[in-house]
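Q: Given only this backbone (202 positions), what sequence would you predict?
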């Protein structure tokens, strides 16, 4: 899932500030450069439906009729933030167009009013269907005591956990993080235990 954020400073007209999105999923065999597809310009307050249509029609060439679609089914939702909007874009295609983790969309401002700012970030990493889920091991030192917290890159911290916390407590704490959806946690019953965390939906 990618998150597009647009801070536009509320221009007088929706057409005063516009942007495009660029998708570069592969490299040219002949030039070695990225092969890119670019949407048409969209208003800064574009609806989720229009943004979805723009993305799913990338590759459609009305002039030469070379219809090489490069993005399959996506889900787009729009939310409001201070002085702008954010869109969450989730790749749902299962036909082979967008398997696994996807490249970042590249935003470009095409018209600018009130010094807008636009950015794209990844909120959930994609995974190939049928692939092995990621596992991480949390292993405290043998003489560890007291409490600890966990975090992922760019996230906040979990609540404090005891060094001998149960696997259920570790699972509950991890799933409070916005960057994690669902995990399973097992431990080896050691003193202190070693926990194995399996990321189910990330």
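A: Predicted residues:
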């Amino acid at each position: 899932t990618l998150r597009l954020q647009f801070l536009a400073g509320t221009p007088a007209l929706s057409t005063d500030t516009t942007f495009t999105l660029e998708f570069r999923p592969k490299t040219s065999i002949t030039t070695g450069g990225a092969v890119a597809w670019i949407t048409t310009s969209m208003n800064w307050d574009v609806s989720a439906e229009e943004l979805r249509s723009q993305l799913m029609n990338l590759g459609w060439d009305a002039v030469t009729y070379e219809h090489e679609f490069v993005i399959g089914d996506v889900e787009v939702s729009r939310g409001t933030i201070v002085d702008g909007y954010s869109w969450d874009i989730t790749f749902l295609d299962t036909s082979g167009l967008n398997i696994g983790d996807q490249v970042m969309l590249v935003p470009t401002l095409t018209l600018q009013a009130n010094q807008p700012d636009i950015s794209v970030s990844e909120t959930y990493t994609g995974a190939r269907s049928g692939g092995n889920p990621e596992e991480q091991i949390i292993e405290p030192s043998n003489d560890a005591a007291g409490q600890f917290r966990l975090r992922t890159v760019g996230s906040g911290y979990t609540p404090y956990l005891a060094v001998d916390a149960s696997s259920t407590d570790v699972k509950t704490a991890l799933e409070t993080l916005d960057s994690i959806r669902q995990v399973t946690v097992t431990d080896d019953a050691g003193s202190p235990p070693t926990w194995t965390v399996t990321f189910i939906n990330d």
